[in-house]
Amino acid sequence: MDTQPHLLVCISAHGFGHVAQTAPVLNALSERMPDLRITVRSMAPMSHLRTRIHCPFHYVREGGDIGMLMSSALDTQVNETAAAYQQLHRDWGLTVSNEARSLREIAPDFVLSNVGYLALAGAHRAGIPCAGMSSLNWGDVLNHYCGAISGTHQIVEQIRLSYANAGAFLQLAPNMPMPNLENRISIGPVAYVGRNRREEIDEFFGLTRGEKLVLVSLGGFDSHFPTEHWPRIPGVRWLIPASWRSGHPDALMLEALEMHFSDVLASSDALICKPGYGSFVEAACSGVPVLYASRADWPETPYLTKWLEENSTCKEVSRKKLESGDFFDELYDIVDTPAKPPAAAYGIAQAVEWLTQRLQPQVP
After folding, report:
1. How far, in Å, are 95, 224, 264, 266, 330 from residue 341 at the CA level?
2. Could you point out which of 97, 137, 226, 256 has its C-alpha 20 to 30 Å from the C-alpha of 104?
3. Any bridge partners for residue 39, and if so which?
4. Domain of residue 314, residue span
5. Is the peptide bond before 174 cis (omega within 30 degrees of 0)?
6. Which of 101, 102, 66 is nearest to 86 (CA)?
7. What is the pLDDT at residue 363?
């Protein structure tokens, strides 16, 4: 009889924030339970998952959640998103039954979803214990953007019921309120905190003492800031993804370092990004100041920014300023401000404790 517990983890590929929330928990859980067998089901690239999830896992490249369709890292396609949800929910009962059948074939002892709801609905139908885990849920996000579109209300209710039928929803701080989920369990922040390797980076790029290294990232979305239009700022070097093909004379290629992203972040003088859980929490837990783009329409933004303001040095700048490079004053404000103590990612231990209790074989 196989007594090795099997955990299926479903991770949304809407950016890299959901991977950033889940990976530290899996790494710590694997250390706590060395015999745990993990299957990861996601459309996030295996190459990215491997940089974050350090324990052994089996990979199933499948989706299961829509999230929000985006035309860029900051622009949501509202009508297209509503149409995609209407298609998925056209015969919701059959869709859930098919998902339940797929889950029975994988045969996990437990399903953890961040934060697709179809996996939770399928697990509930198949009688497999399950839980959601995230700082947001797609029902509230969909309602925020598409609530006024005909047919959305019924879909939102089906989504909320899928989350509500799970054994729990581990609500990671900082988070959206989610008042409709009575099964939510509030836990602390989750982030992978890297090592400061600044001396290695300075030596690799030939940076001189006193030069500021600013990491620029949009969290896994296939879009970019027009950094080639940014003016030159004396003493500032920009660390930018190679895929952006930046022509700025002071740009440095992130991938050239061949370092874990979290180590690079922890070694930087500042981060420029969009509002997002992974970027904000990891920066705050690394003690790195943040300059972030305005994103007032994203419903998670006010909760993320409030937490960041309390736990880090940060400033918001308009999208127009980030596109033109007219943010010299704001950048130096956060770089020159005395740093706050790094935030603690204590949610990892809380999530691991909760999951361990449900995955360990019960002694009769």
Report:
1. 48, 30, 19, 13, 21
2. 137
3. 8, 58
4. 198-336
5. yes
6. 66
7. 47
Residue 195 corresponds to which amino acid? R
Q: Write 315-323 long-range contacts (CB < 8 A, 24+).
A: 315/290, 315/291, 316/292, 317/291, 317/292, 317/293, 318/293, 318/294, 319/74, 319/293, 319/294, 322/225, 322/272, 322/293, 323/225, 323/226, 323/229
Q: What is the DSSP letter of 242?
A: G
Find the length of the chain: 364
199 burial (CB, 10 Å; 0-12 / 13-18 / 19+) is exposed
pLDDT, tens only, 320-352: 999 999 999 999 999 999 989 999 999 999 999
- For residues 84 and 186, membership in a common domain is answered with yes
Query: Both 263 and 326 in a single domain?
Result: yes
Res 1 pLDDT > 50: no
| Contact in structure between 21 and 172 (CB atoms under 8 Å) | yes
Of 118, 146, 142, which Cα lies nearest the Cα of 132?
118
Q: Using CA of residue 25, residue 99, residue 167, residue 160, what is the dihedral sign?
A: positive
pLDDT tier, 362 (very low <50, low <70, confident <90, very high otherwise): low
Nearest by Cα to 351 from 8, 112, 58: 112
What pLDDT, on the 0 to 100 scale, is given for residue 232?
A: 94
Q: Two tokens at 300?
A: 């998670």
The count of structural domains within the chain is 2
Distance between CA 153 and CA 358 in Å, rounded? 34
Q: What is the pTM (predicted TM-score) of this model?
A: 0.96
Are residues 64 and 185 located together in one domain of the fold?
yes
Can you give the CATH number for the domain in which 27 is found?
3.40.50.2000
Q: Are strands 184-187 and 251-253 parallel, antiparallel or unpaired?
A: unpaired
Q: What is the mean pLDDT of residues 99-126?
A: 98
The two tokens of residue 274 are 């969009």
83, 76 Cβ separation under 8 angstroms: no
